[in-house]
Every structure is written in C-alpha cells, then in structure tokens.
Specification:
CATH topology: Immunoglobulin-like
Shape: elongated
Number of strands: 11
Helix content: 10-25%
Radius of gyration: 19 Å
C-alpha cells in the first residue's frame, strides 16, 4: 500500500510538471540570395532556465534541432546560440553546464537550392526550475511564402 501511495504521488508530481510549458518559442526566417537563416527566440518563464547547445554527453538535455523534411534547401552548420549562455556546476551531472534564463536566441543557417522550398522540423529542449525539469519541443514549418527576403545591396 505504501508503494502504491508513493507511486501515485510521484505520478501526480510528474503530471503537474509536464503540464507546464515554461518556454515559449517563435521564429523568423530571412533569405539573402541563396543564404537563409532561421532565428529562434525563446521566452523563458521566471524561475526556470533552459540548457544551451553545448552540453557534454552524460549531462542534461541540450537544445537541438531536428529537420524532419526539407525540400529545395540544404541545412548549413548547426544550431548556434546568439546570446552568451551562463555557466554553472551541476552536482547531479558532475559537470559545468551552460544555460539561459529569461530569454535565448538561436540561429540555424541553410542554403536555398530551389525557388520553392519547405523545412519542417522541431527544436527539442529541456527547461528546469524548482518544480522539476520539463522536456518539450517546438515544431515549425517554413515555406518560401513565410520568408522575409532581404534585398541585395546591388539592387539599386
């Protein structure tokens, strides 16, 4: 009976944490000639923090990008933080980790190979706070119709 009660208590605590969404994302895409950039902006709820991209193996979940479908583009490089993350030692992982509070900005480059293109994917990340850690994902779909085209400097 004691095990059942503890299991139920743990389940309720887990459900409460997982129901929260302490990070809200949006994105903006720009294209300049054949070069494109996806700029992701995260707003992080007070009392939470989100891990950066460079977390060593064996540590907490870093933010990563996964492209499920792409047509007419080639992804270039990796997801990169624009802002400088904070660092701290986390004894649970026995390592220093990099993280963001309040907000974070990331960029992903791509090369445009065709007039029409589509990129479908998601960001996978983890936010932690006093109530625990919340893994989540931000799904996105990008088409040429939703892109800001930067005029070339020679277009006078």
């Amino acid at each position: 009976m004691k095990k059942l009660f503890l299991s139920l208590l743990l389940l309720v605590a887990t459900l409460q944490v997982s129901a929260q969404q302490p990070v809200k994302f949006d994105h903006e895409v720009t294209v300049n000639g054949a070069e494109g950039k996806i700029a992701f902006h995260a707003t992080i709820e007070e009392g939470y923090y989100m891990y950066s991209t460079d977390i060593p193996k064996g540590g907490p979940m870093p933010i990563t990008i996964r492209v499920k479908e792409s047509e007419g583009v080639e992804m270039v490089g990796k997801l990169t933080p624009v802002d400088k993350p904070k660092t701290k030692y986390e004894s649970a992982f026995n390592m220093k980790v990099s993280y963001f509070e309040n907000s974070a900005n990331f960029e992903q480059g791509f090369k445009v190979l065709a007039d029409d293109f589509v990129i479908k994917g998601y960001l996978r990340y983890q936010a932690c706070g006093a109530a625990g850690c919340v893994p989540d994902r931000y799904e996105f779909t990008i088409t040429k119709a939703g892109v800001t085209v930067v005029p070339s400097a020679s277009a006078n």
